[in-house]
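Why do we care about 3D structure at all? Because function follows from shape, and shape follows, mostly, from sequence. That is the central idea of this module. The next example makes it concrete: a single protein chain, its amino acid sequence, and then its structure expressed as tokens.
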Amino acid sequence: MQDLNTISFFISSVSSAEGEPGLSGTGLQIADKIQIHEPVWYFIYLFILLAIYAWINVYYGNVLVQTFRASINFKLANKMFNSSSQVQSQLDTTLYLFYFLSLAFMLYYVEIRINRFPYDFRGGLLFLFNLGFLALLFFGRIVIHNIAGFLFNRVKIIREYLYNMFIFNKLTGLVAPPLIFLMVYTRGALQDIVFWTSIIVLSGIFLLRVIRGIIYSYQKDVLNFYMFLYLCALEIVPVVLLYRWLEGIL
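And the structure:
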């Protein structure tokens, strides 16, 4: 009974504060401190992501270590590409799907944090937009590069190059879930630290990807001039156009 009386007194105090100009700010501050919980579906979604991650590790081994080794070891990446193993093919497909699921949610949460909403989408629509956007980039890249490979009779080299680049997609997908979990369920300065740490980690993965592209060009004896043309045509220009499009819708 004493606990019920205490709760009733607290509620009545907050209610009365809302009606008094001098105490309305106090009531709002109390409400802000109480309202710190994220939507339930965040936890459910992240729990499912972590469960999938655990299943992948149980079934295929420590995929994070394997993928990181492939990202820094050119010979290992090419060995994985040339492997005709069905298990390797299944693992690659699983990690690509996991990349879409994890990075789409990370983009969703970052967009909420910086208060930027493409086409004013919110909630589930915003998440689905990010998921479709990532899928479009992924498959669009495959189509454009394969067309270029067919035109210049370099289909196998282009496919091998794409496989090397997509290793970093898989690495991003594996690294993202724990960072997302910390971003969602921390507050204040700690959340800021996690946010900027995530940006640094993802930037580091992108830098590794650029280095791998340069190493690949030298390993395959691609002339610097043609590599420059390739980077302009299939890497830099699409990124610039993408930036302009995002700038417009945001």
